Amino acid sequence: MHRAILCIPPNLLPEKSWRILMGDLENHFGDDASLDKKDEKIILDFLVQYSAEKSTKKASFKILKSIGNKDIIAITQTTYWKKKHEDIPKSVFLNKEVKSKANCKACHSDVEKGLIENDKIKNINSFM
């Protein structure tokens, strides 16, 4: 049995984004994340079931609004994400512990539980 690790909770992208992302796993942000069809379907079904449209979390509503009709598969490309992170120095995302904007876990310690609340964010001064 394989174990998939999600970088972001499914409620932070809409169904359309998940379908686009899962439809091109051999070109997954520069990596080949191909899966067998059975595992791919299980993961896609999970992502769709808990996508932003089906969430009651405030962040999900804001992300949906910021995406609109655009085909966005990276949360870091949403207007909402950019606005929430605009005051963070670029050097933080280049820090060896953070590595990139896509590494939510570096600052949001409970992201795998779907929690991105402000009171759970690490102090970014440690990355500067």
TrEMBL record:
Pfam families: DHC
UniProt-listed InterPro entries: Dihaem_cytochrome-c
Protein name: Diheme cytochrome c
Taxonomic path: Bacteria, Pseudomonadati, Campylobacterota, Epsilonproteobacteria, Campylobacterales
